[in-house]
Protein 1
Amino acid sequence: MTAPSPNRTQPTGSGSAPRSFDIGIVGGGAAGLSAALMLGRARRSVVVIDSGRPRNRFAPHMHGVLGHDGRPPLELLARGRAEARGYGVEFAEGEVSAVERVAGGFLLRGAHEVLVRRVVVATGLVDELPAIPGLEAMWGTSAVACPYCDGWEVRDRPLGVIATSPMSRNQAQLLRQWTEDLTVFGAVEAGIPEAELRAFAMRGIRVAPPATEVSGRLGAVRVSTAEGEHRVDRLFVGARPRPVDALLSHLGCDTQQTPMGTVVATDDSGQTSVKGVWAVGNVADLKALVPMALGAGVHTATQINISLLEEEIARALASDASRED
Ligand SMILES: Cc1cc2nc3c(=O)[nH]c(=O)nc-3n(C[C@H](O)[C@H](O)[C@H](O)COP(=O)(O)OP(=O)(O)OC[C@H]3O[C@@H](n4cnc5c(N)ncnc54)[C@H](O)[C@@H]3O)c2cc1C
């Protein structure tokens, strides 16, 4: 998939000796930037290292984000970077390839190596699409995932759901709120149980064979099946969410099962089982929309700040005690 890359900023930490920061944030999407803003305002030194592939970069507009409804997603991130930079947050473009434990914190490895006391992993998730010719090129415009994000714009229009698992039942029944003209492609093959298919029929939801190819443009999408061609305005797809969590698994962070899949386990503050490593946004919460990622970033930032503060208080007390000895 290709998409525009957000405007980038100055690299950080090049040269032989890695620079040190209080916090290193891996991933500069909604969650990472929100954490960066709060930590910058708390006068912490912060670096955000970001590879520039936010999940919603394929979408021209973003919805349901109070105060930003209809704004391009990349514009929100550009604003966020500018706001955070105003509080001294530094940015580097590139991929963090590993997080290693070192004395006093962590070494972030990759194009920009930095030493940090705390790590926030805000690397998001990847939407794995079913292998249907033509679908990838439509992702974010004619083919989308979330009725809350994109349903209003196509209310009362003919819509389709590409079923990929029994969970697609939820997407179809939800979408029925926005239109009476709804077809679910591949419902039987995706394993949606008979009782649920009856509920589809009772709510006027049609069932069709699996899509073999999709083509067309926004507002005029053609869906080919073994039994012929269908026309819909837009497709909703049960993409499989895969968290971008390699850094966390290499660190040995515990995971947990959720109805949408396995994710890193975190406590109420967003901290993983590895002390000093936080995970926030879609990497830890597969269902998080932009406002949830923003809120989680703020919450995690305040908790990290407290953890640093407690460390600083303990250090002050220890140095006082050693003076008395
Ligand atoms: C097509 C589409 C449309 C959507 N529309 C809406 C909408 O209208 N409203 C809404 O609320 N939500 C919408 N969403 C959901 C939204 O995309 C997510 O809620 C949001 O992106 C989550 O933010 P995040 O910060 O967790 O992850 P992301 O935004 O995905 O950011 C993760 C960042 O981490 C970077 N990264 C990953 N690995 C590394 C690494 N190793 N080193 C450095 N950087 C790394 C990535 O490049 C990326 O920039 C939509 C999603 C999709 C797919």
Protein 2
Amino acid sequence: MNVFNRARSKEIKYHDKFYAETTLFQSGSWLSRPVKVVLENLTHIEKNKIQVLDLGCGVGRNSIPIAQQIQAYNGKVHCIDLLPSAIKLLNQYAEHYGVTNTIVPQAVDVENFLINKNTFDYIIACSCLEHVSSEAAFQTKLEEMKAGTTDKGINCILMSTEVKEIDVLSGEEQVGLIELNLSTEKAFAYLRDVYTGWQVLIEKSVQQEIQEEKDGRAIIFRSNWITFVVQSKGLS
Ligand SMILES: C[S@@+](CC[C@H](N)C(=O)[O-])C[C@H]1O[C@@H](n2cnc3c(N)ncnc32)[C@H](O)[C@@H]1O
């Protein structure tokens, strides 16, 4: 199996199991609360009939709180995830939280989801774009996101870069298994290039470490978590 297929298979297995075992907003898990920067940037956008696109939405950690905030304004959150299991749970959570009419869910690979031009006021890609198949696919999706955004709209991109696995005992370092393992520098270079002419609201990178067990060994997964938030200057 090539690296992409191994990474994709690991990604699917992990999320299928995790979403089945963890409830949305369960404390102590990464689903415990929405991502602050994702919710904060929503406040910079005019709400009336707002159209939000959440790429790699999972079970709705960000989509559900956003839906709760925009429901009264006749807005919609279009939710895309690769996993049918995630979309099934998202539908159940949408019902539980009373936002079924505001959520538009679709189980599809982000690479096969064509973003229509000039359609969305807010596009979120939170831990999604590092799962596309190539640098070309990454660049194409960014171009599509940009073209799919309305005047003064915002794109909020969060992703892992430079993913490494470090054996705690031996200190041995290996390249991490992920579909698209860009260097932080390269990811920022693509982002700055595609979004030339837009206002950069946030650009930052923070090192993250998670300790896990793999094949009976203690492993540290180290990556740089980047946040890139940009706003279209629009015509006016
Ligand atoms: C770490 S989770 C984050 C979920 C959500 N964005 C959040 O912040 O809670 C990554 C999600 O991306 C989805 N995903 C991975 N590869 C994808 C792809 N190629 N197309 C669409 N979704 C994908 C996974 O199924 C998973 O639900």
